[in-house]
């Protein structure tokens, strides 16, 4: 299944899309000089994918806080909290799958790096059952993963670089997909940049940056000149989530705006030179007071935690009275799980990767994936693999009641045997059991059957023709002999 969003158009007008599911597995690097349109590109990606996946934005300039009202992101002001509070917030964000913007514009660079490191570290260290899929967008990534020591302290650089390396190198298995943007590839740590498989390269002028961009795009050095000629908002794209060959893309329009200062021209004041002289040399106490909006009071950590929890509850109930009822949701979940179970090789994937796929499919059907957590998903997926399309059907009540005592990893093969016994079908062969278990080893299947028999869950019989049949003593059922 593909869940893609549009980011813009090719020179011929063709729609250019990013496959979000593929992006979660392969990460993204955006590069371009100041004014090339990097932030505009990130904003377009965030707006278009807001309904598909959880989003966490590390925002050093406070540009993305405007996503809060139209898209429901929670704004976390990094300057208002201590390190332990930031870690607690990140833990709660991971648990409740809230989309957030961590605004760091109120901090000095050294403090920004430490704050981001603690925040990313808490996301990374979440328990295994909370490894939900999330896009982690880091703007100005060269600040948090510098290639060389600068004016910041060694401690800040060390912890920040370690957090960014974890995000890009090891975050995929934890559901964290890094999307990093930088002005200068030469200033970004190579081990962080190298982990991205998708690239969007904007205008850059320095030879060293053009050369690195050309290398990442698979272009010859002499072709790198076209990167210098790109217009604002135009990028060269490459990667499994976008295109297998480099292509030009013009980023589409966005619905929100940055808080940044506009670089357009403004008319100069019409004050005369004499009046300006008087204003500039007036006593400080006589300067007119400017009516400025008061700075908002910092939100207490406990209050923000409650907001994250309530936002998560709101997302779960977003359908409202007009949304699908419980029966429709259950039918949709059964259909999604059956489709996944029927795909070749699905049982060979890790549970966390399957759950990411499940979450995307649920969002495409406008269903909250939190109807099933990771543990419940494992068992429901095993039920679907066994061919039980509707667990609520009373025909399967006895089997599923017995299955509560079966470990998660053995559930699908056991249910496959129990279903065949209930329907009087031939005993599944080793190949069928291996597919349900997610292995290619026939020896492992023999050990699996022995373990189920020693546990008292099944009784194994073999007739004189060497054909296997399996009984389920608890239910008084037995399969027919296995077909030769």
TrEMBL record:
InterPro entries from the UniProt entry: ATPase_Atu1862_pred, HerA-like, HerA_central, P-loop_NTPase
UniProt cross-references to Gene3D superfamilies, sorted A to Z: P-loop containing nucleotide triphosphate hydrolases
Keywords for the protein's UniProt record, in alphabetical order: ATP-binding, Nucleotide-binding
GO MF term set: ATP binding
Top-rank taxon, per record: Bacteria
Helicase HerA central domain location: 13-68
Entry protein name: ATP-binding protein
Species per Swiss-Prot/TrEMBL record: Sphingomonas telluris
